[in-house]
Each structure stands twice: as structure tokens, then as C-alpha cells.
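User: Okay, second chain of the day. Same drill as before: sequence in, C-alpha cells out.
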Amino acid sequence: MARPDGSGILPGMATFTGTVRFNDLEGGFYELVTDKGDTYRLSKCSAKAGERVKVKGKVEGGGFGIHMSGPSIAVDSIEKA
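Assistant: Same drill. C-alpha cells below.
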């Protein structure tokens, strides 16, 4: 989900609700599976795998890291849903 102008970060914050999942690919990382079925890597995560959470942050697009799992959310805050 990159901006139409091709930059990597969407303007403004967004809130996503879903379930935290741990992916053990390439050393492991946390991702959020949203209620709509989308999957995002989480830049940081204080929740445990399996917890339902609300995440506030910005979606970063335009590139992939070593995890190659999809877009990432630059997390501003995360709380139990």
C-alpha cells in the first residue's frame, strides 16, 4: 500500500485491529493479521502471539526487508483490543 506518488509512507496514522502472530522466518518477527485478513509486519511489538490488539501507526511501503512478508506498520502504539 504505497502512496500514489510512489513514496514509502502513507500520510497520517491509521488504526488496525487484529491478532498478533509470530513468524519464525529469518530469525523471527511479529506480524498483525487484521480482521480484514491483511497481514503486516510490526516494527515493534509488546503483545504476545495470539493476542487481539489495536495498533496505531503508519504503513510503510515501497520495499521489503529480509522478512519478505509484506508491508510493515511503523507502530506508534499497541494495546489489547
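The longest strand covers residues 14-23.

User: Thanks, on to the next one.
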